[in-house]
Design brief:
77% of the residues lie in helices and 0% in strands. With 124 residues, it is mainly α. The radius of gyration is 30 Å and the shape is elongated. It folds into 2 domains: 2-63, no CATH class; 69-120. It is built from 5 helices and no strands. The longest helix has 37 residues, at 69-105. The chain has helices spanning 2-27, 34-44, 47-56, 69-105, 109-120.
């Protein structure tokens, strides 16, 4: 079993190193370290490496613009805040409507009718 675990770990590390060597220009504008450059060159000699580079949009490294990790994280946080805010607003609106309905139900039938006429009056 330890031999299989070692093989699996070696294969996993090789895959991660290969992918890292390919996506390096997308992640940073810094030059690739020498060891990673050697891995990149070997990976790009394979059909699978070329296909992966094309799929990820890094086949022409001169045209690749690095992705700003901080702007991606900031955008994700902003999207999460917007979603939470929207859900909170919906929950508050629902609660307010429930309270108003309960209060209207406690009115006399005549006052309930007046309330309905005010609420359902056509807009002018």
């Amino acid at each position: 079993m330890p031999v299989l675990q070692f093989i699996a770990a070696a294969v996993g590390a090789t895959v991660m190193l290969s992918i890292t060597s390919i996506v390096w220009p997308k992640v940073t504008s810094e030059p690739r370290p020498e060891a990673l450059t050697k891995v990149h060159d070997m990976v790009m000699e394979t059909k699978a490496g070329q296909d992966l580079a094309n799929t990820l949009g890094v086949s022409d490294e001169r045209a690749v613009q690095p992705v700003s990790i901080s702007s991606v994280a900031s955008s994700a946080v902003q999207n999460a805040v917007t979603a939470v805010s929207s859900q909170a607003q919906s929950a508050v609106t629902t609660h307010v409507l429930e309270v108003v309905v309960k209060q209207v139900e406690q009115l006399s039938p005549q006052d309930q009718e007046k309330f309905r006429q005010l609420i359902c009056a056509p807009a002018e």
